[in-house]
Amino acid sequence: MTGLVIDDVSMTFELPNGGNVEALKNINLQINEGELLSVLGPSGCGKTTLLNILAGFLAPTSGTMAMNGHAITGPHSERGMVFQQGALFEWMNVAKNIGFGPKMKGTPQAEIDAKVTELLGIVGLQDFAEKMIYEMSGGMQQRVALARCLANDPDVILMDEPLGALDALTREKMQSLVLDIWKKTGKTIILITHSVEEALLLGERLLVMAPRPGRVHKEYRLPFAEMGVGADLREVKRHPDFGPKRDEILSMIWDMEEEIMGRTESA
Amino acid sequence: MIQEVFDVIVTTLRMVVGITLIMAVFLLVSMALSFLYGLYSKGRGMTKGYTSLKTVTFGDESAVTANRFASVAAVVTIFLLWCIATGSSLIPTVLPPPFVGETEFEYTARNANGETDTATVLVQVYGSDAERPDEPEALPPGDGFARNDFVQIVERRTKVLKVQNNDEGGKEDGYEVIEINGTPVTRETVVPFAKGEIYVTKQGSLSVRPSTGLTMEALYLPPPEKVWSSFITLNKEGYQGVGLWENVFWSLIRVVIGFSLGCLFGIPLGFAMGLNSWLRGWFDPIVEFMRPVPPLALIPLVIIWFGIGEQGKISLLFLAALWIMTIAARAGVSGVNISKVHAAYSLGATRRQLLTKVILPNSLPEIFTGARVAMGVCWGTVVAAELVAAEKGAGKMIIAASKFSLTDIVIIGIIIIGVIGYGIDVLMRKAENKLVPWKGRG
Ligand SMILES: Nc1ncnc2c1ncn2[C@@H]1O[C@H](COP(=O)(O)OP(=O)(O)O)[C@@H](O)[C@H]1O
Ligand SMILES: [Mg+2]
């Protein structure tokens, strides 16, 4: 069977002081091929943990995950990852960063070069192939990170707040880029964000998670991602359904945050 | 014990006063020059650029850059102070130099019979590096029982003159020198004369002290021109059969070999410690113990083990570099952003590829920092080791020269050691900028 299947996954961290944190509890999810899933939730609800488990960096305390029918046991190039920042290789130029994955697999250089040129075009960095990473702005670096991930042609792209460190204008452009790439490549994308608007724009399917224990609180199917492809995202935000949905989810998260605050205060 | 501690405290306080005085002179010159520079640059509108528009500069680190004019002025100032203190011939006289040349004084003696007579003493003071001048032929003896005398003294030195020796009746009881240049004197008193002073000793002899001036003696600090001429000679003839640059070459060779060995073993060791829990645990006690042991403290042991040959010195430098490089490499591995590692694995890298393509380049900045420190330590250690035991080398040259009070060679050695140490650091920094241009910009 294709896609990602998460079967009753729980993750409990033992703390040095003897206590433990239920970062994830009994997560069941089925993510289909080509799906654009955004995951939203207050800080500490286990989003990063979930993504790290899917990427294969962490093994869950219980439960299993499978990708296209085989179990996930470690990192693999079928599951690409885009980090918030700091994951590019400063000692390589942009082209070498993007070509890293194919190079590791021993792809012929000519093929790598062609791929890199194509991807530089897709992310709009045609003229920056020879630039070093530290010469690029934050937004450009994330474009490189996206391209590097795509160069490996993964089945799933996992993104942990990839746009979180960008300013609002750059962020908007990058959101369009993510939608474009999703449509052009048909990849499964799982994107974590703490911005409600971003989650609405970049999710055909949106999971709202709740903390303590980390779990899926609510799930939505949304039309906005489809609308946003090739369109002005500000237009999408003006859609009559957008505002109410945003408010609904915002207040949901507000309630969770208040609950957490209340709990820690009384504790 | 208490007394010794007390002496240390007194010495310390004296030093505080001395250091303060030296610093004060240096800073006063600095302030004066700074003031003049301010007038000069203001008049020409030389302060331009972005920094000149900053109103907050005090406390803004980036607004403080080394003023190159000040650096040059400081070096020139030190050079001038050196010239002044040593009475260098490169500049006009500032401090009175020690007296050299001929002078004379008169003494009046009274003999056993109560008669008095006056005679002249001719004093010849000659430079310490000059030949002893010829004695003047037959002094006119003068009349009366006191006879004229003659004395030759090296500059800054003192000589006891027994004027009574050639005087008639000078050995008899009751003979006494009673006046010098007309000034009445008694035993154990000091009287000045034209170019110095005379101390009448307990035995009634005259201790002649020509004026020593205020400049420093070449034994302590030779003037620059003397150091320069020694440098020329040293360059041509070497010292004790070993050429100047041969000495430097040997020191450098030892450093290069010791440092390279340190890198060769230290970097893999650091990587091993950064990548494997067992190996980290295994080497931790050794590294943590050896790290704070200064390499100089190992010199005696190394000499016992390996003797004074090359192996001992290279082993010492190897040990000096080893722990620094190990710790630098370990820090480089530990410092890798976990996202980079995760990214590399997600992109399909194998462990080996991760090591060579990610961990190694990522730790280069740390390794370079370590290498700079290690190079500095090695250079200092090699000189110290050569002071103790070596046949050739910059350190050996200066310690050998110091045994013969050849201060100029010692100073040349120190300057060369400093310049080379600085040169090494500059080269390392250049290499760093070239090889790890992303350092500090991650
Ligand atoms: N390595 C860890 N050790 C202990 N607790 C952890 C660890 N990683 C995450 N946690 C805890 O698990 C919970 C979920 O963390 P995380 O997945 O980072 O949340 P999110 O990404 O949604 O902010 C938090 O309470 C966090 O403190
Ligand atoms: Mg997170």
Model description:
The complex is a heterodimer of chains A (267) and B (442). Chain A is an alpha/beta fold. In chain A, 40% of the residues lie in helices and 24% in strands. Chain A has helices at 47-55, 94-98, 100-104, 109-122, 138-151, 168-185, 196-201, 224-228, 233-237, 242-266; strands at 4-14, 20-31, 36-40, 62-67, 70-71, 79-82, 156-160, 188-193, 205-210, 215-221. The mean pLDDT of chain B is 89. With 442 residues, chain B is an alpha+beta fold. Chain B has three domains: 2-65; 101-210, no CATH class; 225-435, MetI-like fold. A five-stranded mixed beta sheet of chain B has the order 3-2-1-5-6, with no helix packed on it. Chain A binds chain B through residues 55, 57, 74-77, 79-81, 83-91, 100-101, 104-105, 132-134, 148-149, 152, 154, and chain B through 337, 339-340, 342-350, 353, 357-358, 361-362, 364, 436-438, 441-442. Bound molecules: adenosine-5'-diphosphate (ADP) and magnesium ion. Magnesium ion (MG) binds next to helix 1 of chain A.
In summary, what is this structure?
The complex is a heterodimer of chains A (267) and B (442). By secondary structure, chain A is of the alpha/beta class. Chain A is built from ten helices and ten strands.
List the helices and strands and how they pair.
The complex is a heterodimer of chains A (267) and B (442).
Chain A: E1 4-14, E2 20-31, E3 36-40, H1 47-55, E4 62-67, E5 70-71, E6 79-82, H2 94-98, H3 100-104, H4 109-122, H5 138-151, E7 156-160, H6 168-185, E8 188-193, H7 196-201, E9 205-210, E10 215-221, H8 224-228, H9 233-237, H10 242-266
Parallel strand pairs in A: 3-8, 3-9, 6-7, 7-8
Antiparallel strand pairs in A: 1-2, 1-4, 4-5, 9-10
Helix pairs in contact in A: 4-5
Chain B: H1 2-44, H2 68-86, E1 101-110, E2 116-126, E3 149-154, E4 159-161, E5 176-180, E6 183-184, E7 190-193, E8 196-200, E9 206-210, H3 224-237, H4 244-275, H5 277-290, H6 295-306, H7 310-334, H8 338-346, H9 351-388, H10 394-403, H11 407-435
Helix pairs in contact in B: 1-2, 3-11, 4-5, 4-7, 4-9, 4-10, 6-7, 7-9, 8-9, 9-10, 9-11, 10-11
The complex binds adenosine-5'-diphosphate (ADP) and magnesium ion.
